[in-house]
Write a structure and sequence with these properties.
single chain; 4 helices; elongated
């Protein structure tokens, strides 16, 4: 394990126990374990993405499988097939313009 023997590992744990104390040591160990787990997960995801990038046959097979699928009759139309709906009569009719109120002759005290 990283070229560290059992004696060195025990020494590191004793020093960590002295520095951190018995109350904080479990919390630090838990957070360190979570960080290592997240690092392993991120490394695995990067490896998988690199394998897909370096294996064009896999991408071609996926593309061919997707292109073989025929859309069903209830499928969503593509953007070129979509026509906008006809405007309603309310949208076509001109809107009445508001008439400004005449100035008031009354003055405020």
């Amino acid at each position: 394990m990283f070229g560290i023997g059992m004696q060195e590992l025990i020494l590191v744990l004793v020093v960590a126990l002295i520095i951190l104390g018995p109350k904080k040591l479990p919390d630090v160990a838990k957070s360190l374990g979570k960080a290592l787990n997240e690092f392993k997960r991120a490394t695995r995801d990067i490896k998988e993405s690199l394998e897909v990038d370096h294996n064009p046959n896999f991408v071609d097979q996926s593309h061919d499988a997707l292109s073989d699928i025929q859309p069903s009759t209830g499928a969503i139309a593509s953007a070129s097939e979509v026509t906008p709906p006809a405007p309603s009569p309310e949208e076509i009719a001109p809107r009445p313009q508001s008439i400004p109120a005449p100035p008031s002759d009354r003055t405020l005290p």
